[in-house]
Amino acid sequence: SIAADSKKPIRIPTHNWSSQVVMAYVIGGIFESIGNNVEYVPADSQAVYESIRQGDIDISHEVWQSAFGKSFDAARDAGGLLDWGDHEARTLEDMGYPNWVADLCPGLPDWTALKNPDCAAKFVTPDSGGKGRMLEGPQTWHQDLIPQRVDALGLGDLWTVKFAGGADALWAELEAAEKEGRGTIIFNWTPNFTDGAGFTFIDFPPYYDGCRPVDGGDGKCGSPDGYLKKAVNENFPKTHPDAAAIFKNMSFSTSHIGAMAALVDLEGMTHEDAAKKWLADNESVWKAF
Ligand code: TMO
Fold first, then answer.
1. Ligand 1 pocket: which residues have CB below 6 Å?
2. Contact 210/217 with Cβ under 8 angstroms?
């Protein structure tokens, strides 16, 4: 472009799951490679869209439809936040289980297998009041979506939903269940490091627009085959035209994003080091943006 990018740092949010944080540093590294300054801002994953709309944060690079679509829509409709296109990767965010668990409940992954009391009994934990326990992610991601769904589907007498304090508690639960040889049902998503590692999502009744209680529906639906979107503050293309053009072109695949998460959650790297390694290993991918 003719006008050069402002030297004012580009403010990139960081949230509480690994691919998002690694991708923040990946994008920051790409912006720095063209001479930009960047700043990383820890932010709530729902409130961030309002912060972008207000101009306190410049971009969002992982807008997951199921968890954040409603907050994204509200900010876009209020003005000040632009839809900056989708990644190639499609997304699913839902409850599921490591594959060995299928043996405990005949009929899985069909959700109706959960109606069987013999199935639920195999997921009782000390804190579950005699019911089968499902471990949902932090409540900031979906509020009461999953407890509402359990009740709407008539599973509330057999199952209870607990919230994990953070994503790491979900992965710790997977490891502990495997070690102890017991069943577990947790919230998970794709793309993630568990792609191809023997994790199956439960087939709930199909999602449709309006099926969730927050949208006025009865709650008897699973999560959508969702987008993974990018968003920017409306002034960002004016203050940083070169970075904005790169960000518009940027599109990561399921395997790109799974690898970003795996470097942290399987290989134990820091988010910053994972981003450096990802950039070094994938020059041909990001230089094309
Ligand atoms: C937004 N998330 C990837 C945690 O489902």
1. 17, 64, 67, 93, 137, 141, 189
2. yes
